[in-house]
Amino acid sequence: MQPSCFVPYRRDPDFVDRGTLLDQLRKRRAAPASRVALTGLGGVGKSQIAIEHCYRTAEQSPGTWVFWAHASNTARLEQSFREIADQVRVRGRKDPKADVFKLVHDWLRDKSGQWLLVLDNADDATVLSPPPSDGKTWSEDNITDGGTRGDGSSSALQQPLSRYLPPSKHGSVLLTSRTRRAALEIVDDDSDILPIEPMHDATAHALLCKKLGDKVDRSDGIAELAAVLEYMPLALVQAAAFIRERAPRSSVQQYLAEYRESDSRKTSLLNRAAGHLRRDKAASNSVLLTWQISFEHIRSSRRSAADLLSLMAFFDRQGIQESLLRNPGSTADNDSFEDDVFTLRDYSFITVTMEANIFEMHNLVQLATRTWLENQGQLHRWQGRSISNLCAEMPTAQHENWQKCHVLFPHARAASEKRPQDKDSLKEWAHLLYKASWYACAQGKAGDAEHMSTLSMEVRQEVFGEENAETLSSMDMIGRARELGGRYKEAEAMNRQTLALRETVLGREHSSTLTSMSNLAGVLNRQGKYEEAEAMNRQTLALKETVLGREHPSTLTSMSNLALLLESQGKYEEAEAMNRQTLALKETVLG
Description:
Layout: H1 21-30, E1 34-39, H2 46-60, E2 65-70, H3 74-87, H4 100-110, E3 115-120, H5 125-128, E4 171-177, H6 180-183, E5 193-195, H7 201-212, H8 222-228, H9 233-246, H10 252-259, H11 263-270, H12 287-301, H13 303-312, E6 320-321, H14 334-346, E7 351-352, E8 358-360, H15 363-375, H16 379-393, H17 402-416, H18 423-442, H19 446-464, H20 469-484, H21 488-505, H22 511-526, H23 530-547, H24 553-568, H25 572-590
Parallel strand pairs: 1-4, 1-5, 2-3, 3-4
Antiparallel strand pairs: 6-8, 7-8
Organism: Aureobasidium pullulans (Black yeast)
Region (Disordered): 127-162
Protein name: DUF7779 domain-containing protein
């Protein structure tokens, strides 16, 4: 027989080379008894790379046998080995008691020519290395010299698959897997694993252009589409298929507009299968469904890791601090947490940054996780848990807390986009957004500050009523945000409303009421309403001197504010006198 290439998929004419990866595979294949694994997220292009490698091998080395085995489960793996036995016409293959793995092993071992075996979708370590039926460890003695199983049975693997892959100097094995753990059942160590990441912008752009074809307007939006889909090959192919099928009534820009409508619209678009792909028929052609299969596997094998993934799906995708993932006051075993992290990293669902306690994940993985949770009726539970953890971690925005606020603010912004449903979560959400808006004000982010404080106020009005102190705090923050944004008239209106309510609810001498008086005086001053601003400042100062005392820092601040206002009106003598009083008191109080 002449060597042949037995790959169950046609070559992809639209394949886009990804740097030196195929060259690396070619060089490694030339090494004696090479074993290499491609690992990474489902849909990242591992199988497509393997397919292209097979065809290039057949072109460059016509004397090489090329075989393909589906390794997603035991039944498919055994069927693939039976097909290989048929392809090379191994003697004894038709014996119902034949150990087809042993037959193929012997043929590969004894073959003098070159061969390449691909094990595709080898995601489950227990498929590649099933536990012994007697509960003991595997022994080389289980492999017999003949072509039948040692126990005479017709069951599947009698040994770990790696033992059926002979270390032949003229053979090589290429494995694709979502997990490092499964890959290490076949390859020797991490040096034999090539992690496959999403595409770079240039290769993603090239893939989209090829898949869209000439009938689709490609003049605008391709780079943007590649970016929002995070350069994930399967997602890119799905999007291109959707647009191409509907052209000319669909375009890249229309797809982008639809995609940005909502999470539910994103899910609808990304759940659409991409048609005839060079993928295992048992695998989904939807990137979201592909990952959700992995989620189910994680949940069945390690529930706590699935819970950790569920929690992480609601934060900003970057800078997820470990402290956000621990239950406040939890005594959970640290080793257990580390095992959960290892599991998620193994599936490439999360990565660890150079700072070991900071995690990152893809937006699309978060979307897939939330969709999976929604399908199980668990979405609001985990959303509430994430809000609770974040609210507990987010401090108020005094200067000494700015660094921590800075780290947590992106997560608060992400939380602001998804209003929770249950009452307890709503209360925490409103409190979180109030603290975040306070920090946004301190950093000059007027838009974020007003948006978050408005959401906070609306919830607090619903839950507590308009005259509640917490509601009034959110109203106060809206006034500050509007003033910061230069919308002085609207800020004045909100400040007047807040002041009136605080005087009624809290009393004229309450510290929060005095804060509202100062805020109103400030926005009046900014509008050139100097007389009213001066009167309000004098009232505030008088009340602070009575309530807080003349030497209180807040009283001294009001004195400085009044001095500045007097100066802006040209009342220089009064301003000087007030400044001298303030200076003398500060020297006494502060030194």
